[in-house]
Amino acid sequence: MTDTELTRNARKLFGLTVRSARESLGMSQDQLSKLSGVERGRISRIEGGRANITLDTITALCFILKIDIPLNYSDIHESNQSDLA
Questions:
Q1: CB pairs under 8 A, 24+ apart, for 1-8?
Q2: Which residues contact 18 (CB under 8 A, 6 or more apart)?
Q3: ∠ CA 83-71-84 to the nearest 5 degrees?
Q4: What does the domain layout of the chain look like in residue ranges?
Q5: Could you tell me which of 13, 63, 70 has the C-alpha nearest to residue 35?
Q6: In this structure, are residues 38 and 27 in contact, taking their beta carbons and an 8 Å threshold?
Q7: What is the fold of 3-67?
Q8: What pLDDT digit, counting tens, does each position of 46-65 carry?
Q9: C-alpha to C-alpha distance for 57 and 63, rounded to whole angstroms
């Protein structure tokens, strides 16, 4: 796996995690935006794996959504490609 594939997979995996957590809390993207200070359009791009985001943004979203900050990057490397497509 190349560095580009690894970072693309990391973005997709994080985006799926954010979407799942947000939906499980019954929260809209607009609500998450207001609580986190992250623009709604950016949240959409994050959930779609299309945004390269900062640690500050990751921290804000994880805090609001009550999820752990993903630090185990071996999960990204080992993820099944079909899960991230």
A1: 1/77, 6/73, 6/76, 6/77, 7/52, 8/49
A2: 43, 46, 47, 61, 65, 67
A3: 10
A4: 3-67
A5: 63
A6: no
A7: 434 Repressor (Amino-terminal Domain) (1.10.260)
A8: 999 999 999 999 999 999 99
A9: 10
Name the residue with tokens 């994050």: 46
Q: What does the pLDDT read at residue 7?
A: 86
Query: Going by C-beta distance under 8 Å and a sequence separation of 6 or more, which residues neighbour residue 8?
Result: 49
Q: Is 66 left (phi over 0), alpha (psi -120 to 50) or beta?
A: left
Q: In angstroms, rounded to a whole number, what is the distance separating the alpha carbons of residues 13 and 47?
A: 9
The residue ranges of DSSP E strands in the chain, in sequence order, are none
Tokens for 76?
């990204």
Phi, psi at 37, each rounded to 5°: 80, 10
pTM for the full model? 0.81
